[in-house]
Request: fold
Amino acid sequence: MAVAVDCRDQISNAEWQARVDLAAAYRLVDMFGWTDLLGTHLSVRVPDAKDQFLINPYGLLFEEITASSLIKVDEEGNVLSPTEYEVNPAGFVIHSAVHIAKPEIACVMHTHTTAGTGVATQKDGILPITQPALAVIATTAYHDYEGLATDLDERERIVRDLGDNRVLVLRNHGLLTVGQSVAEAFVWMYRAERACRMQLAFQQSGAELMPISKEVQEVTIERNRQANSPEGHRPVGRKEWPALLRKLDRVDQSYKT
Reply:
């Protein structure tokens, strides 16, 4: 693995902080076992250059990614930072779709986990059978599989299907989450992944389902919308992210380099 040159003296403080947060997210994805070797991607918009975003160098494992090694690209996929690595074309299509169309979104995360893909392959997707699932369903949409995401025309359909939601189930493919910060996108991914794991655990048990009534589903979904809003008692990512960084720092702080 090539060692990335520390670039903090060549960029703004805001960009450096975005790089540190994104590198931390890559390490946490690895820590939680959500990786797919070199596949899948996390990206963040460059704070002081709204038409540019940071993404992983195609060739590094998530456990190897540092703030300096992240690649800066523009909306056309042009690499803007010195690197010996490339950007995965499929990753560029999926992430640029959201970054171009939704300036309020700072971060996009995409995974191919066993649980996430297992549920994405089911016709009914995430089922309203657990409390964590209802929290996720409150802001979940679906996008039909179109093959490897290398067709730029698919970007419009990805954005259309995502709408104003925070979770997009990519059918037969995996999960995608977005947020106004790395923290928000990561915690939505954690919640979506956990809901999928619980669903598969129940389905594999062979037990009889204890259904949640439609009325309780609706009430719970609405309560989650309120609780997760900026005015609620648990705005997504705000309290979890500092705790996750402390957890990561106890293990390995090299992501900050």
